[in-house]
Structure formats: structure tokens, C-alpha cells
Amino acid sequence: MKQELNFAAHGLNGQINVPGDKSMTHRAIMLGSITPGKTQITHYLAAGDCWETILAFKHMGVNITATTNTLTIDGRSLNQLKNPRISLNMGNSGTSTRLLMGLLVKQPFEINFVGDASLSQRPLLRVTKPLELMGAKISTQKGHLPAKITPVSQLNGIQYRLPVASAQVKSALIFAALQAKSPSLIEEPIATRDHTERLLSQFGINLKRQGTIIEVIPQNQFQATKLNLPGDFSAAAFWLVAALITPKSHLILKDVGLNPTRTGLLRLLKRMGAKIIIKNYQNDYEPRGDLEVSSQCLHGIDVNAYDIPAAIDEIPLLVLAATQAKGVTKITGAQELRVKESDRIASVTRELNQLGAKITELPDGFLVYGQTPLHGNDSVTLNSEGDHRLAMMLTVAALITKGKVFLKNASVIEISYPSFFRDLKQLIV
Ligand code: S3P
Fold it and tell me: Residue 396: its pLDDT value, please?
């Protein structure tokens, strides 16, 4: 199935609330499910990836009810989960897979994980290896799904420096370390999103951090809580870049999560000369606020490995912005993009170049030549490769592309932002 994408001749205008944060929704479901009592999560993300996490816990006996805006979880403690007796299907969700491996590593029954074709190609050894060092027993298909956790009676604490900056691996290790018989020290090479640490403290579990090292003392006194999640910065990012590059645009994005470990794109766009206004800033358990943005001229910048973790999911959008900026943008140290839902270095380069962009693929990033008008000649069909973020970035690119642009497999957007096309319809003038 292919869908024709919109050209925004008159810009984008208006105000929207983006859906709840995906990373926080996963973690809140997990922590609510292993905490005795009722946890209530409002403004959660009701989308494909999060349903995989919900279903996994339902199979383990947790009662979860979902209304349009609220999830109510009747949690059990970790040692009260039921044997699911079927493989847990992780669908497309890397976050569900890796975090649940750490959380469920010491269950008294076997846990089997399966996933879709894309997820089954993504690397797992980065999480299974340190878990095995702690005493876990996990088998994979040469480092990929399907995977099986075999019960072990105890886990040891670990002192471990992550070889890649990954919040998924860090979170899995924190979850396992809480269940170990001795304390752990987990070090990250560059700070990654800290939603696990912040949400744990909402559930009564406080971790100590010194610089890039997190100390985890084993504990299990989780307390049920009520959480209102901020909008997903990664969803807001599509509209931020859309407004910046589409002439005559002005947007207000309400109640967006502004955790600095997630807002690297704001800092990179600022370096490119963008002015984005933050209003109604609140420093809650997760910082949040409104973002106001208009069309602007940008210039090229150099981006390196230290900039990547806080902008990891937004780099495809940064590349798109760079195609319209003055001068050249060089992005390096972003090799992690090769193991996302698609090889995003290859897929972003190939698809944007189909629209006339001038992007050269580097082993670990991109060289983007700016000020390239995008055009689809008479008609062009883009391929989302089953990658939700690529599909949305290409839809944003189409807003400034002359000629007919079609997108194959646009429905993958349901994985993280089911109301994306409805929101676009509301904003397009
Ligand atoms: C996520 C962490 C990131 C990110 C993913 C969500 C999370 O992955 O790309 O979309 O919720 O922890 P890595 O930590 O593996 O880079």
C-alpha cells in the first residue's frame, strides 16, 4: 500500500499536544506491573510498541486496563508474576525486548522472546553479555531473537562500563542489578536518557549517580504511584523541523518532555542558528514545557559522537534540516543508527537523495550538502522500509518537495505515533 504525501504550499500553523512519551510509557508500564497496588498513568502512549509491553505483562498475570487517556495497572511484585507459557512477542520494539530481558532475568520459569523481522536483526549481545556476567542464562540465535532466559537462583552485582552509549542496555542492567545479591556500579561512556532512573525514584527506588557512574543497591520496596507523562520530544521533533524548513510556518507544541538527555536536537538546531522558544517550563520529575517555532534560515554544523546519544532518534530529522541549511553539515560518531529499526544511515541517505538531496553516507554518519531544493520530478515513491521514524521524517520532507511524492508502507507510523497524519492535517494550512 502506498500513500500520497502532502506538499505544504502555505506552511504549517497552529497548536498541538503530541502523544505521551514512548520511552517513559514503556518504563512506567514495567514498573507499575512489578509494584504491588494500583499505578495510574495518564497521557501514556497508546501505540504499537507500548502494546507489546502491556501484552507481555498481561501474559504474566498483571491486570492492566486502558482507556483513551489512562492506564490502570494492578501490579504484582516481581516474584508474583505468572509463567506466561507462551513466547513473549516483542513485535518491533527494541525497548520492550532489552528492558524486559533485564527485568525478567531472574524469574523462576523460562521466558522466551520473539519479534518481527526488523527486531530479529537487531543486536542483543550488548545486553545478554553483561547479564551473563551477573550469572544469568540467556540463549539467542547468534546474538539475535528468538531468545530464551533460563531460570537461575541468584545474580551477582557487577562493575561494568557499557561499550556503547545505550539507555536500553543501561536500563536492563539497572533492573537486573536491583535483583542481585550485591551492589553494582554501571558506567556509561556518554550520558544517555535517564528516564529509568527518574521513574524508579517515583516508585520509591533511589539510585546514586556520580558523574557517569550509577550505583545500584539491590532493593525491592517499590511503591505504586500516579504519573502524568509529558508529550514525547521525539514526536514533537517532527513538527519542530517541519516548521523550521517549511516557509510561512508557526507552531506551538504543548507540554513536551524537555529532559536534557533527550533534547540534543534543540541544542543542535540552536547551533544551526534556530530560535526555538520554551514557555511554561516546569521542572517536575521530568522537565516539561511548550515549544514555539517558526520557519527560519539555518546553517551547517559539525556533529560528533558526544552530540549523538541525546539526539539519537532525531538524527534523521537533523539530516533533513541540514539539506535546507546554508553550507555543509558533517555528522560522525553515529554508527548506532545502523542498528535501529532500519540501517538509518543507509535508508535516510538513499530516500532523501531520491528527492534530490545531496547526502554522502559515511561509515558512522553523513555529509550533507545544504540548500538543495527537494523535488520528486513527476512522481516518486519512497520506501519506509518498515521504519516508523523514517516514514515520518520522509512525510516531513514531502512538505517541501515539489512533484508527487508517495510513501510505501506508511502504516508503520502506528508503531509510535498513531495520530501523526491527523495532527498533520490539523496543522497544514
Ligand atoms: C530508547 C533508547 C534508545 C532509542 C530508542 C528508545 C529507550 O535506544 O534509540 O528509540 O527507551 O531506552 P538505545 O539506548 O539502544 O540507543
Answer: 98
Cβ contact 227:43 at 8 Å: no
Q: Is the minimum distance from the CB of 310 to ligand 1 under 6 angstroms?
A: no
Between 94-103 and 167-177, two packed helices, what is the crossing angle to 10 degrees? 20
Strands 37-42 and 277-283: unpaired
SS3 67: coil
Listed in order, the ranges of the chain carrying CATH 3.65.10.10 are 22-214, 232-427
Is the C-beta atom of 89 inside 6 A of ligand 1? no
How many Cβ atoms from other residues are within 10 Å of residue 351's Cβ?
Answer: 25
Q: Is the pLDDT of residue 1 over 90?
A: no
Active site residue 307: no
CATH code of the domain occupying 232-427: 3.65.10.10
**What's residue 376's pLDDT?**
87
Q: Which three cell numbers stand for residue 141?
A: 540465535
Query: Which whole number is the average pLDDT over 118-133?
Result: 97
Gyration radius (Cα) of the chain, Å? 21
Q: How far apart are CA 133 and CA 385, in angstroms?
A: 35
**Residue whose entry in the numeric block shows the C-alpha cell 539467542:** 140
CATH numeric code, 22-214: 3.65.10.10
CB-based contacts of 265, cutoff 8 Å, min separation 6: 233, 237, 240, 311, 314, 317, 318
Q: Is 188 in the pocket of ligand 1 (CB under 6 A)?
A: no
Residues 374-386, mean pLDDT to the nearest whole number: 93
pLDDT at 377 exceeding the cut of 90 = no
Residue 294's DSSP bridge partners are 250
Average predicted confidence (pLDDT) for the chain: 97
Pocket residue to mutate for ligand 1, from 21, 23, 168, most atoms within 8 A of Cβ: 168
